[in-house]
Amino acid sequence: MRHRYDCPLRWGDIDQLNHVNNVKYVDYLQEARGALLHACRAAAGVEHHHNDAYVVRRHEVSFRAPLHYRFQPVSIESWVSEIRAASFTLDHEIFEEQPDGSRLVYVRARTVLAPFVLETGMPRRLDEQERNALAPYAELGADRSRPVFVDVPRDRAKLQQVQVRFSDLDIYRHVNNVKYFEFFQEARIASIRRLQRGLQGFPRVASVIAQADVEYVAPIVLRPQPYDCWSVVSRIGNKSMVVESEITDGTGGSAEGAVLARSKVVLVFFDPETQRSVDPAPGFREALAEALGDMVTAGR
């Protein structure tokens, strides 16, 4: 059985391309996840208890089609695709049903969650009651691949600092999982802003995210000092490039900071006029690598 949640859109969810911003999809998934977990508890006849606390360990988000603002909600199906000793995985599909019965899929995503003891912040195993609550929504047994995150070489990376705001915190007093996507987005945009000058001789080419994977290593908490975010371009292809980033607990460019989160994002070159991916003009790829300079670690 799959859980269905109808998620309303907000005008503020739209980006400069008139699409729902990539970060907002993760916000939608969070709403759907909460609704699913509530339904799991209700189906099992259990109340929310003190051990019922979960943190996100990893998000894998595949963007399939742009979603534009409309007054009708968008549909989200969620189900349990894996149950392990100390974690479980939810799969999601954000879609719109078509008149012929088919689906226009906007996003497919996977979220790995881990239970922990709220009082101590320590991880724990899933108990039998939780397993029973998840069981009605389980579709188990499918083979799965996991994203590979690499250490970002900080001597080649572009440094951008990110500042935590009080409103970024969740009920556990950690930075909410959605906000990490915002931090990585801010750092990514700041890191590649130099491209405008280096690509002035080419027609304007925008970019959209095709895939965004984030791994949560340790909680980010509120503090006066900003955190460091390091980014590199690990691949430049014919129609896309890959940006890999790390947020560390260092500040001011300290190379010794411990990794708190990792991100791997595939950006596809995009024509705003046709709303399609494009193969840029000859020489664009080389000019892009030149403009990025040492930030490119491979694929030049």
Structure report:
There is one protein chain. Strands 1, 2, 3, 4, 5, 6, 7, 8, 9, 10 and 11 form an eleven-stranded antiparallel sheet that branches. Helix 1 runs antiparallel to helix 3. This protein is 19% helix and 33% strand. It folds into two domains: 3-137, Thiol Ester Dehydrase, Chain A (Roll), CATH 3.10.129; 158-295, Thiol Ester Dehydrase, Chain A, CATH 3.10.129. It is globular and about 65 Å long. Strand 10 (259-271) and strand 11 form a beta hairpin. With 300 residues, it is an alpha+beta fold.
CATH architecture of the largest domain, by name, is: Roll
Terminal CA distance: 47 Å
CATH class of the largest domain: Alpha Beta
Q: Summarize the biggest pleated sheet.
A: 11 strands, antiparallel
Low-confidence stretches: none
Roughly what fraction of the amino acids lie in strands? 25-35%
Total helix count?
5
Helix content: 10-25%
Q: Mean of residue pLDDT?
A: 90
* Total domain count: 2
For the CA atoms, what is the radius of gyration?
A: 20 Å
Shape from CA axes?
globular
Would you list the SSEs in sequence order as H and E? EHEEEEHEHHEEEEEH
What is the H level of CATH, i.e. the homologous superfamily of the largest domain? Hotdog Thioesterase
Total DSSP E strands: 11
The secondary-structure class comes to: alpha+beta
Topology-level CATH name of the largest domain = Thiol Ester Dehydrase, Chain A
Protein name: Acyl-CoA thioesterase
Pfam families: 4HBT_2
GO molecular function, one term: fatty acyl-CoA hydrolase activity
